[in-house]
Amino acid sequence: MYSTIPNTIPKWPTKWLDMMRTWKSAVTTGDDARGRENTVTDTRTEAGLAYATGAEADAVLTESVTQVIRRQAAAHGDRAAVRWRDGAEVKSLTYRELAEAVNAVAHSLSGLEPGSRVGVWSRNSIEFVLLELAIGTRGLMMCALNTAWTDAEAAYAVDMVGPSVVFTGYDGLGRPLEDRARQLAADIPVVDIASLSGLAPAPESFLDVDPQTPYIVQFTSGTTGFPKGAMISQHAAVNGGWLRLQHSAGTEDVSLNAVPLHHVGGAVSIVFGALTTGSAFVVLSKFDVDEFIWLLGEVGGTHFGGVPIMVERLLNHPDVRSKGRDVKVVGLGGADISPFLIRRVNDELGADVITTYGQSECPFIANSVEGDDPDLIATTAGRPGDATTLRIVDPGTGEVLKFGETGEIQISSPMVMLGYYGDPERTAEVLPGDGFLRSGDLGSIDEHGYLRIHGRIREVIIRGGENIYPAEVEAALSTHPDVTGSAVVGLSDPSWGETVAASVISTNPELTGADLEEYLEQRLAHFKIPRTWRFVAELPMTASGKIRRVEVKAGMNHRAPSAG
What we know:
Blueprint: H1 14-29, H2 43-46, E1 51-53, H3 65-75, E2 80-86, E3 89-94, H4 95-108, E4 117-121, H5 126-137, E5 141-144, H6 151-161, E6 165-168, H7 178-184, E7 190-192, E8 214-219, E9 229-233, H8 234-245, E10 254-257, H9 264-277, E11 280-283, H10 289-299, E12 303-306, H11 308-315, H12 320-323, E13 329-332, H13 339-349, E14 352-359, E15 362-367, H14 374-379, E16 383-384, E17 389-393, E18 407-412, E19 419-420, H15 424-430, E20 437-445, E21 451-456, E22 461-463, E23 466-468, H16 470-478, E24 483-493, E25 497-506, H17 513-520, E26 532-535, H18 549-556
Parallel strand pairs: 2-11, 4-5, 4-6, 5-8, 6-7, 10-11, 10-12, 12-13, 13-14, 25-26
Antiparallel strand pairs: 1-17, 2-3, 8-9, 9-19, 14-15, 15-16, 17-18, 18-20, 20-21, 22-23, 24-25
Helix pairs in contact: 3-4, 4-5, 8-9, 11-13
C-alpha cells in the first residue's frame, strides 16, 4: 500500500541493544517477590531499610504483542475488544475482528524493516489503536508525537528518531496535522491515519518478535529542556498494562479513559490493560463531559479514570448516577487527590478508587488497591506493583535510607525502559547497571510498603541547610478553600541560599500572601512557608500537563518578599 516507504535499518548499535537486554534480565530476576497483600519482608526491611517489593513475580507475562493478540482472538474471539463513537452510534470490534484489522494494517507496513521507526501524530482514534498494535506485530517502533506540541518541539522529536513514515490525524482541537507534518518532515512520507480504516483482509503479516524488542519511544515531558525518548520494550508494554489491571479487570469489564495514546497512560495502561485481561475499552478522542457520560451508559462502563478535575466534573453531571450504574472502579492520578473526592466516588457511585504511579521510563511502578482507606489513597502512591522492588536512596551518597526518610525512588521492574533512544550517556546516568532505575523522583516508603511522592530531585529547595519539598507545600496550600492551584519554587538568597516562593491560582481576588502565610503557620514548619507570592490566572504547563517550574521561577524573581 505504501510503496513510497523505504526500508530502513535500526539506528542503534546491536552491541548496545544486547547490553540493554542483559541489564533487563538482571532486573527481572534480581529480587524475590511474594504475596500481593503484603510486601515482602527480608533482612533489609527487617533492618528498617527503605525497600518494598510487590507480589507475584511469576505473574509476569512473557508474550510479544503478536502472541497476546493471537491468544485473545482464540480465547475471546466473539467478545468486544474495542469500542468507539461514530456519529449517533457506538461501533465495536470483537477480539477476532481486532486481530484481522490489525493484521490488515500490519500488511500495509510490511515494506518496513523490523526496527524502523513509525511516527504517529494524531489524537486518539480507532485507527491509532490499530496502528499501535500493528507496529508491535511487525517489530517496528512507535514514536507518537504530542498533539499539543509546537512545530519546533515536534521537529526535534522527528529529528531524534528519524521515522520512515509519519501518520497524521487531528490535534486535540480538531485541526488537521498533515500539512504541519509535511513542513517539518519534508523528506519523510506523511500518510493520513484515516486511510487505515476499513483495509481489505490481507495475508498473515504478523511476525514472531522477541518480547524484549524496542517497541514504544515514549517522549518525556521536557520540563527542563527538550524531551528524551524512553524506549519501552514489548515486554514492558504488555506487562505495564497486565500487572496494573490483572487484579481489578476481567472479560466482562469495559473501561473509559480519555488519556492520550501518545502517553504511556494510554498506549500502555489503557490499550494493553484491556488487551491482556480480555476486557474492552472505549476510544475517546478527547474529554467531553456530556459525551463521556453518554458513552458510559451506552457501553455499560465498569471502569473509568482521569485526573481529579475530570472526575469531579463527571460526578457533577446530573446523569452520572444513572449512566454510571455499572461502574466498579475509578482510576485517579496526575495530581493531588483529596479524600473528599475519593469518598464522593465511594458514596455516589459505590465504586472503589485506585491510584497509579508511573513515568515514561517505567509505565507502571506502584498503585493502591481496592478497599484502601481514602486518606491513604489520597496521601500515597500505593505499594509497588507485582514483580517490582522499590528502594529509597540518598541522592548524594547512594546509601539506602530508612523507612520514612526522603530520598530518590529507585525501581527494579520488568517495566523499566531499555534506555533513551540514541543517547547512551544519559541512559547510563539513570541505568548504571545495578538493576535499579534512577527515577529522579523523591519519595519515602513506610514500614507497610506504601510510597509517598515528594517531588523531583531538581525541585528540592535548600534553605539554610533544610530540605524543602515543593509537593509538601503545594499539598498544604491545596487545602485552603480559595486556592485552586499552586507551584512552589526556590529563589536565590544571599543569606539562606534559597527562599521559598509560590505562584498561586485563587478564586478570591482579595486573598493575599499574608493571609496564606497565616493559614500555613498551623500546617508547616516556619522555614517551609513561602515569603514571596504571585497570584496568577494560570500556571505555565508542558503539553503533558506538568508545571514548567523554570518559567514559574522566572516570573517570581522580580517579586518582592512579603513581611515575615
